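Troubleshooting: if your tokenizer reports a length mismatch, compare your output against this known-good record of 293 residues.
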Amino acid sequence: MSGRKLPDSEQASNPAASSPATVPVQVSSLDGRPDAETVYRSIKALITEGTLKSGDAVSQLELTRMFGVSRTPIREALRRLQAEGLLDAERNHRMRVTVVTPGELDAIYSLRIFLESMGVALSLPLMSPADLAELQDASRAMDWNDAVRDPQQHDRDLSRFKQLAMKYSGEGVLAAVADQFDRCERVRKIYQAVSPGNVTVGRDEHNALLDAYLRRSTEDAVFIASRHLGRTALAVIGYMAPDYEPRAVRFALTQTGRGLPLPMNGPLLNIVGAGPVRRARDTNGSRDKASGE
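Known-good structure output:
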């Protein structure tokens, strides 16, 4: 994920910072210092919640002062975040927050469409009544207000629902789905912050997917899952770079939707057309709000 550049408008709004802002850190070790896992999660939160922005420099010295720990847990955390694609290493060994481009999102979301469609198709036919009841319980436990109020909790709830929905797809598929979901975390949260009205759309799509599971309609479930991801991708990419053509996402949608019925009505499904994505406007002149995942 190195060597990427944002559009000029993004570059202007994301100046590099020499040091991260201070955030509350929970103490998790007996000597009163945060343990390695807490350090990792806290630095990740700085990135995914936008305190550290695209292109910002990350100083090991500043982080050791912030957390009151040695450089060993800091280095371990930074290595993990680099492996997850959230940090890039420069030639002088300095780290920077990875810059996200529309091309990268096009690739990630197209892969997610294929992976999650396959996960749904492999799992739903094998699910027992007890599996479906557990999936329904996981859905009921989700508080969609957390998407704005407590995004980390919302991500945990959504991730659990996904794991249950694709539980028979195999460990490799589940691991790949979780990895790609995490890679979208930072952009997803930034987009939710600028468009909080997307929560209602996301909830409705989630409920439609659950309904397809309860009806044991694999075709409808695959269709809804792929279209939800596709609409999210087009909305996020359109927000970042309105003139970028997300060819990979459109191709993935045509492949996963081939021969499937249209189980829902409305603009939600009108996303496989030709040409660049344009941000539509509602009757009040504001941008359409779309759910982020």
